[in-house]
Amino acid sequence: MFTDVIDDHGDRYRLLGGSSGASDSGGKRQRWDLRSVLGPPPGEDVSWLEFHTSGGPVRARLEPPVATAVSARKLEPASSTAEHYLADQLHDHVWLHLLDPERPLASLEVIAAALVSVNAIEASHPLVVAVETVDATIAGGPAGPTLPPVLAAALKAAPALGAWQQVAALGLIVDHPDGPSLGFEALVGHPDRLAAHFVSGSDRGSVGSHLVVTATDDLGDGYVAHREILGGIEEGAFHFRPPLHPDAGSLTISLQGPSSVIDIGIDLQR
């Protein structure tokens, strides 16, 4: 824990409250997340904060938010409940595979077949075909053209020599027609994933629980996200896999609900 927080002017700060939570995605990459509120807020003339810990000081440079652009588009026609559910299962299945490629996964085609059997979706629907392709790809086959482009790109991504390991402030509020209002705080790059941290003051259900979240970069790479909660349903992060390519100059995060998609364009070249 931090024993002291000081800025470049010598002023000290208090850590007020906070929340924490353990992450156990697949049991292979466990970690502990902690969130604290700093008081009073640093002034505009503060360049960096230094957090003193038992292991030594950690310095964090304060920088203005990166440039972002938000756009919305309607899905025509809107997805049915079965279609959106299957799309969510499809993306989550790919994310689980990217989390731990060596872990065997049950066939996703069982879910698609069940929806087809009760006439909730047609057997020829592109999502049903995509499920069959994903099962074949995870079993060792190529990522075929019947997959959504972002999933195909994520599955065929070659291991990068490194990963984008930085922190970029966002300071962005997005009000999604199909979900709660999300306040995106920052992008955090890790060796194995990219995290988009968010908070929400909305009472319209669990944060991001009805959204399919993906991303693409300017290099043509694709990323699939999984929502993880931190300290309650109103705060957490979307964890993207594979990790963000270190040479990416921009990123577009797409939040897809049954009727609308919100695209967040982020300029990482600063």
Question: How would you concisely characterize the structure shown here?
Answer:
By secondary structure, the chain is of the alpha+beta class. Helices cover 18% and strands 38% of the residues.
Q: What features would you describe in this structure?
A:
The protein has 270 residues and is α+β, with helices and mostly antiparallel strands. It folds into three domains: 58 residues, no CATH class; 114 residues, Immunoglobulin-like (Sandwich); 75 residues, no CATH class. Helix content is 18%, strand content 38%. The chain contains four helices and 14 strands. Strand 8 and strand 9 form a beta hairpin. It is elongated, with a radius of gyration of 20 Å. The chain starts with a strand and ends with a strand. About 2% of the residues have low confidence.
Could you outline the blueprint of secondary structure elements for this entry?
Elements: E1 4-7, E2 14-23, E3 31-39, E4 48-53, E5 56-61, E6 68-74, H1 81-99, H2 109-117, H3 126-138, H4 149-155, E7 167-175, E8 181-189, E9 194-199, E10 212-217, E11 222-229, E12 235-241, E13 250-256, E14 260-267
Antiparallel strand pairs: 1-4, 2-3, 4-5, 6-14, 7-8, 8-9, 9-12, 10-11, 10-13, 11-12, 13-14
Helix pairs in contact: 1-3
